[in-house]
Amino acid sequence: MSRKFGKVLLSLAIPAVLITTALAAPANADQAVRLQYRTSAPGATTAQAEPWLRLFNDGTTTIPLNQVKIRYYLTGAETYRFACSWAVVSCSTVTGQFVRQAGADQYLEVGFTSGSLAPGANTSDMQLRFYRSDWQTFTQSDDYSYGSQTSYSNWDKIAVYVNGALAWGEPNGGSDPDPTDPPTDPPGQSGELFDDFTYTGSNDPRLAQRGWTVRSSSGGPGVPGATWSPSAVSFPGGLLTLDSSTNGTAGGTVQTELSTANRKFFEGTYAARVRFSDAPTSGPDGEHVVQTFFTITPLRYNLDPDYGELDFEYLPNGGWGEPSNILYTTSWETYQGDPWQAVNTHTLERASFAGWHDLVIQVSGGRMKYYVDGRLFADHGDIYYPETPMWIMFNQWFIDLQGATGTRTYRQQVDWLYYSGNEVVSPADVGSRVAALRAAGTAFKDTVPNP
User: What does the record list as coiled-coil region(s) (predicted)?
Assistant: First the structure.
């Protein structure tokens, strides 16, 4: 459930060109690369490994960084999380994924979404880190790629591939399986979900048949003791309409939510056309209401590393210490309820977003990109990248109660929802696809496999 409390990683004497030749034949003689390594966590055991890297272009042609993969080899099958602490090339362009090898070994594959490396240049510092998903300490001294040096030196136990070909270093075991088609390549498009919200009401049997749940159960987020009411969810004119209201008491507070019944949405593109409102449809204004579009997984226990949540949250009257309207995009790694501990990152904009907006979240390659009306609003990633399939939800709820006299009702509406699995779809293409579905008379489509 969406909540925002703020939800909280020997410089060699031989000339470099000779080292490159001795260790590995480069992918292209004009694109000779060299990698230097140091660690800022040199202990044999550690809470997190901290490999710092510098990639050099000793060749004569520019190397597009999106063609480069760097592989750091680990011993053991534990589950790890990757993070970029700081990088001259910008952490927003750095990705990291763990790939299983034969037996119990694995490697961390570091890549780039953009940028280039000119002849004679280097990336300068890339301060990376990784840690066990259960936050336990681990032994790193037996990892193939680990070295205890705290000053940069050329390091051949980390392999570099350029355009799929080994260009530097000695992979663990001498070679990697099929480096031109690494197992980190994402699978192809895996189904679409589209809903035009053409329903007669919250009791329309097609809602359940099509995988929707209108919430009636109690609990958070929002005001303790408030009611989640299906009767306050309607579909006039084919618009999902959430009418949440309060009379200033918990017993007189009604909140609303529509959720997918199945957790079957993971990497891909999420999009919805949502209408936020600044003022109530009736009664006095001033409540701290939250209007949302988000994805989420359940928290099985405090600081569950497999928890995930990607939020659009609009607060027309502020809240959480904000005095007026504000839009948040928040990506969660995990949290603990009591005592409160949040692991998240967020981007905000203090402005009115009343009216209709096309909201898009792209989840791919270790990054989550949030768009508002085609404009890139936020780019998150690293430890906040989701690990497991999620539900899709819309809800409208109250942070607290202001105690004003009289009942006031706030309205959030949704025109359509679109999802494409394992595919990055631009906001413009989302609009074109939705228009084509509507032109074909398609009110609902779901080809996303059930779990």
Answer: none
